[in-house]
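Entry 12.
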Amino acid sequence: MIEEQDQRMMKDREVFSRALQYIKPHWTRFFLAFFLLLLNVALEIILPILISQATEELKLTEINIVAIFLLAGTYLILSIINICFSYVLSILLQKTGQQIVVQLREDVFTHIESLSLAQFNEIPVGKLVTRVTNDTVAVSDLFSNLIVNFLKNLLLILGTFVIMFFVSWKLTLFMLIFVVLVTIISLVFRFVSKKIFREERKEISQMNTFLSENLSGMKITQVFNQEERKKEEFEVHNKKLRSAAFKITLAFAFYRPGISFLYILAVATCFAIGIPYVEQGYITAGTFLLFYMYLDHFFGPIQNLSDLLNGFQRALSASERLFTLMDIPPTVVDEKDAIEINSFQGLIEFDHVYFAYEKDNWILKDVSFKIQPGETAAFVGKTGAGKTTILSLLVRNYDIQKGSIRIDGIDIRKIRLTSLRKCIGQMLQDVFLFSGNIESNIRLRNEDITTEQIMEACQYVNADRFIQGTPGGLKEEVRENGTNFSAGQRQLLSFARTIVRKPSILILDEATANIDSETELLIQESLHKMKSIGTMLIVAHRLSTIKDADKIIVIEDGKIIEQGNHETLLKNKGYYYRMWSYIEQ
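Predicted 3D structure (tokens):
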């Protein structure tokens, strides 16, 4: 999905226009920066005139020392003022640029959060990390450095050219030849560099994706002795990135020396034509010196533009990738008339539901069932039958293609997503804990939840027993992904995290898998307590954990083939009976 978006090449004008939207809240600062920029450019254009005037004074028979010192003092004062303008301008732009990049990162991250679970399954994490970190920094450089310096050098070129024309229009006409050549070379370079910068950003993204995936899966790599193979794969990505970077270096290796060579030719032409003009009396030596200094002022900014074009193309390429990401619409969104819900009674209905992750590849086929408020319903069946999919659809991680899903008689698409998920507590097999401490992982920044409520939730689910055994209690450190806790302890913390929010409906998806028998007893005791909270939906491979459920729904190949409680299903001697008999044997 994101690859398809990246292939849509946006025009530079469109990218730049969208990037400029971030300047609007800071327009007063940029107006001040532009004013300082004009003063800075004006001073840089004026200073060579003072040097030329001093040269004319030195040519006089009676040297006016006072006039020379006055010119030197004026030059010094204006230079200091110019340096001060440059300093203030730099600080102003850097501060504003950082504020813009903070806002840009927030916008990108907020948009990423709005994407649906199905979209996250399609987008590699490394690419998202690249967008939020590398690409936003490149865009920040656009505001804090590139735009203003580009304008400055452009104004210097135009201002200097006008002064050169008035100093000696004849010499200036000869210089027009080099201006045309510089323009042609720059346009060709811009066309080529845009492509190679896009390629470089793509390879950086691919590299980050590879690193994100393989650093997360390093345990598997080491367990199966795959270090050498992964090293070879890394070398492939590394060489592709090196190749893309080398293309950029090669392009600038031609462009920058090319501009320098044109400058040398322009200077040679200036001397070849200008010195005879001085000898013939068409212009004075001071005027020729002034023209030469302005010629240097003219080509200096042009050479600077070559470096700025480097950063400019990087920034535009990064902006393009950011905006293509932000143009991806979430697949699961609130309807316009969606309503807020504070709690549910717990009546759940699936009415002729069809669902496919991919078009026409149906995972669920005409699924219908009803779970009464307060009931505990369990879903059983082979791996891939569609059990977890049913639970994902209930919280709208995905939207169904046919049929309807209702809670308390309301179609879940008519309920705001935040309300729906707030009222449904989910406890999954893979528990994710954030870096921090136990208390912060249960509270999850909800300051309305008190420490006392957190402790009560921990006691309710039996998590307090191991928490009290830690040196820090609720303040005990949690490392990245909770690696300093066992699977069972992480599961108990996820139970507490869910219960403290007082949900109306509980979902348990393989919540008792891969844990030791002692912790399983604690979890089973917790589950019995949780039944009193509200409607509960359970997916479990261990039939012994769900035999007391009010309703057991057997699924095979996306269809419901049996429904009933444990005793009823055993009497029917169908699929469930065969599963139970196999376990008992």
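Annotation: The chain has two domains: 2-326, 345-423+543-585. The CA atoms of residues 391 and 485 lie 27 Å apart.
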